[in-house]
Amino acid sequence: MKKEELQGKGLLIHHWDTDGICSAKLIFEQLSDKNIDNRTPILGNYFLTEKELDEYSKYDFIIIVDMALPKENILKLAEHAKVFIFDHHLGPEIKEVFHHNPVIKGEKPDEYPSASWIVNKYLENKVNLYALLGIIGDHEKKIKNNDTIYKIITSYCQENDLNFDDLLNMAYLLDSSYKIGDKKAVEKAPHLLLEYDSPYDILDNEKWNNNIKMLNEEITQQLDKPMEEKNGTLLKEINTQYNIISTITRKVAWENGKNTLVINTGFFDDKDQIYARTLKNNLEPMIMRGKSLGFKCGGKKEVLGAIIPKKKTMFFVDEILSYLSQDDTKER
Ligand SMILES: [Mn+2]
User: Fold this and answer.
1) SS3 of residue 298 by DSSP
2) What is the mean pLDDT of residues 69-84?
3) How far is the CA of 134 from the centre of ligand 1 (A)?
4) For residue 311, what pLDDT is reported?
5) How far is the CA of 55 from the centre of ligand 1 (A)?
6) What φ, ψ does residue 274 adopt, rounded to 5°?
7) How many A from CA of 104 to the centre of ligand 1?
8) The domain containing residue 21 runs over which residues?
């Protein structure tokens, strides 16, 4: 991506989470002399709608960070704009555009733990708060198992008089806007980060702190709902309008040390959200399977997220459960 390729009006499309917001901040900072709007997709959509695609046809260049949008979406955008993607999610390499994703080019995911890290490296920046927050947002405490990266985080903390929990709290605060469903606030966040000059500006943001209070109450309520175990995988059904399925899945999986699958019936009228997390297995084949069945489906080695028409939810859930149980047997 060369600056001379970025002529005219630009659009930055980013994931709604901490990693997406921080990646967007890093891009904005680098391209402060350019005319760039930013948008996140409709929260929960890992694709663009016809309406969005139409609206975005007016841009001359489009940068996409931390999102593996469907190839059809990308090719549609590329009809009118130069497209640049920076990402670490799995998916096909899209050769028709600039697609910088070391993970799908065979590099070790451990060395590229977030889009913010990839963007920061690409820009040849030094290690900084935003490169690290993207990692913390995506991996939380699990990043402590990644020796190389955790050392970098630890030494950053020491130099800046912060601790790991401060970083974790910052990531929760940045994630709070999408979790309560506030798309506008997500899109405002990269701009706020550009204005902020201390990590305490993030930690003290009043609106984000209020979001967290509301979310914690809802998460506690949903975690109380019953759970069953099927062939070694924990299965839980929740009903919430908040975007907390990934948080709930993480909590259940990590607290119980088991593969976990959560179904949220309360987010869409006609569809369910499902989210699976495995501790040792590889969900990639099931992501491919979900896509081949025509579902909106994405994820990484250890997680799968999908949006499924309500009538088909149990069909796909059963397939995932049986896949996880087979893989389990092989490992033992
Ligand atoms: Mn990410």
Assistant:
1) strand
2) 96
3) 7
4) 97
5) 25
6) -125, 150
7) 14
8) 3-206
At 312, the amino acid letter reads K
Let me know whether 197 and 233 are in one domain: no
Closest of 2, 9, 5 to residue 34, by C-alpha: 9
pLDDT at 248: 96
218, 248 in Cβ contact below 8 A? no
Same domain, yes or no, for 182 and 256? no
Predicted confidence (pLDDT) per residue in 124-136, tens digit: 999 999 999 999 9
State in Å: Cα 280 to ligand 1 middle: 20
Distance of CA 134 to the CA centre of its chain: 9
Co-location of 116 and 30 in the same domain: yes
Q: Do 235 and 165 sit in the same domain of this protein?
A: no
Number of domains in the chain: 2
Distance 88 CA to ligand 1 centre (A): 7
Average pLDDT for 280-303: 93
Going from the Cα of 329 to the center of ligand 1, the distance in angstroms, rounded, reads 30
Give pLDDT tens digits for 105-151: 889 899 999 999 999 999 999 999 999 999 999 999 999 999 999 99
Residue 142 Cα, ligand 1 centroid: separation in angstroms? 14
- Spacing of C-alpha 131 from chain mean position: 14
Confirm whether 212 is domain-assigned. no
The CATH number of residue 29's host domain is: 3.90.1640.30
Q: How far is residue 172 from each of residues 4, 86, 134, 143, 200, measured CA to CA in Å?
A: 37, 23, 11, 15, 14
Contact between 258 and 279 (Cβ < 8 Å) = yes
| Rounded to 5°, angle at Cα 24 from 19 and 28 | 155
What is the value of pTM for the model shown?
A: 0.82
Is the predicted pLDDT of residue 219 greater than 90, yes or no?
Answer: yes
Give the CATH number for residue 251.
3.10.310.30
Q: Are residues 190 and 287 in the same domain?
A: no
At residue 327 the predicted structure's pLDDT band, cuts being 50, 70 and 90, is low
Cα 332 to ligand 1 centroid, rounded to whole Å: 31
* Helix, strand, or coil (residue 62): strand
